């Protein structure tokens, strides 16, 4: 899972990146793209690890990419370099400046920045889509494919992101590999000054986000950076004193998991306790393929113990003795928290 932090120059991307990753990248313009990976905290993995005492505990992870803004003129468009970086992300986290930045002349205007970013993405997608459509027509391609591209072209021309075009109108399989920007998940982080770390998102911005099919949350990047620098105990106190619920990383992960409809299943044993991320609705056989392609090819059945059941009985044997082990075939829809053991034969 890859999330790209984007936004205009000086909006606070690197500050957010530091708060999330716990790294200490110098803020201020460097033009460098930075990468950082974080573990997705999961108390269920902590618990399982305590029981199995495995040699290795592996959490799901998310990598973040800090993509620098454009400098020189203020609010110049997305450069080809920036666009390329965004194309390789699974989701975009747009950082909007809503604090006075002494290095910049303009007053903060998050709504305008959101529109400017959205328009840039629309234009970039239109170019891709028009090119593709020309080619498909020349090649007299499949009518369904042409129709899909016609429909999204029309949506883009009206300023609508592709992510808002419903599944029953187009066949998204045709869009794979084109990395269309407005089809990516968009999460907006409204970055406010310290005094407003605990304020709420303005209604007009909220409404606009919902039009764009985006999710949003509010933070103060400098406060978050400060929180990230404290040890765990002080963090909890500081967060509570500020009236915040949890640090930005936890909020961002929650938003991402719910937007992308991601769930986790687990594999357990003495060698490793591990979390795997899949989309809800993934079948047992495909989920097995995440672990190893051999497990998918030679899949026979999956032995499933839901996490809560496991915790109730305390061991695999006790679950079996109680007759609570689920034996499932390849079509089984893996649920969040399933502990899975794949039986396979090659
Ligand atoms: N007061 C205040 N200042 C902030 C906040 N977030 C970032 N800043 C400051 O704004 C300046 C720019 O922050 P950066 O994190 O470097 O912004 P950026 O988006 O990475 O900028 P570029 O990489 O140059 O595009 C720095 O001086 C930060 O300390 C905030 O929440 N409040
Ligand atoms: Mg930066």
N to C succession of SSEs: EHEHEEHEHHEHEHHHEEHHEHHEE
The gyration radius over C-alpha positions equals: 23 Å
Assign the structural class, choosing from mainly alpha, mainly beta, alpha/beta, alpha+beta, or little secondary structure: alpha/beta
What can be said about the biggest beta sheet? 6 strands, mixed
Level-2 CATH architecture of the largest domain:
3-Layer(aba) Sandwich
Unreliable stretches: none
| Global morphology | globular
Quaternary structure type: single chain
Number of helices: 13
Q: What is the straight-line distance between the termini?
A: 30 Å
Instruction: Classify the helix fraction into a percent range.
Output: 40-55%
Average residue pLDDT: 91
Side-by-side strand order of the widest sheet:
2-4-1-5-6-7
Highest-level CATH class of the largest domain:
Alpha Beta
Q: What's the structural domain tally?
A: 2
Please report the total strand number as a whole number.
12
- Mind telling me the CATH superfamily name of the largest domain? P-loop containing nucleotide triphosphate hydrolases
List ligands, each type once.
Answer: guanosine-5'-triphosphate, magnesium ion
CATH topology of the largest domain: Rossmann fold
């Amino acid at each position: 899972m890859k999330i790209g932090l984007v936004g205009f120059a000086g909006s606070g991307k690197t500050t957010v990146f530091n708060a999330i990753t716990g790294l200490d990248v110098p803020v201020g313009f460097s033009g460098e793209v930075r990468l950082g990976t974080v573990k997705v905290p999961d108390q269920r993995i902590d618990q399982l690890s305590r029981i199995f005492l495995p040699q290795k505990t592996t959490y799901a992870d998310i990598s973040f990419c800090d993509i620098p803004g454009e400098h020189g003129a203020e609010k110049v468009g997305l450069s080809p370099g920036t666009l390329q970086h965004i194309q390789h992300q699974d989701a975009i986290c747009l950082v909007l400046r809503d604090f006075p930045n002494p290095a910049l002349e303009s007053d903060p205007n998050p709504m305008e920045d959101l529109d400017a970013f959205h328009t840039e993405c629309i234009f970039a997608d239109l170019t891709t889509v028009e090119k593709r459509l020309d080619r498909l027509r020349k090649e007299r391609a499949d009518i369904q494919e042409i129709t899909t591209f016609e429909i999204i072209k029309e949506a883009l021309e009206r300023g609508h992101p592709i992510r808002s075009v419903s599944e029953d109108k187009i066949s998204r399989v045709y869009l794979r590999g084109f990395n269309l920007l407005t089809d990516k998940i968009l999460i907006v982080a409204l970055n406010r000054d310290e005094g407003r770390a605990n304020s709420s998102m303005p209604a007009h911005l909220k409404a606009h986000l919902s039009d764009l099919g985006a999710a949003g949350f509010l933070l103060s990047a400098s406060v978050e950076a400060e929180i990230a620098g404290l040890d765990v105990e002080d963090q909890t106190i500081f967060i509570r004193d500020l009236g915040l619920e949890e640090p930005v990383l936890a909020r961002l992960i929650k938003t991402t998991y719910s937007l992308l409809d991601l769930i986790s299943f687990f594999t357990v044993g003495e060698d490793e306790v591990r979390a795997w991320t899949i989309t809800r609705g993934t079948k047992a056989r495909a989920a097995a393929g995440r672990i190893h392609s051999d497990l998918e090819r030679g899949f026979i059945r999956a032995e499933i113990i839901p996490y809560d059941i496991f915790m109730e009985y305390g061991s695999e044997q006790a679950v079996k003795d109680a007759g609570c082990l689920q034996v499932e075939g390849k079509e089984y829809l893996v649920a969040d928290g399933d502990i899975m053991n794949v039986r396979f034969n090659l």
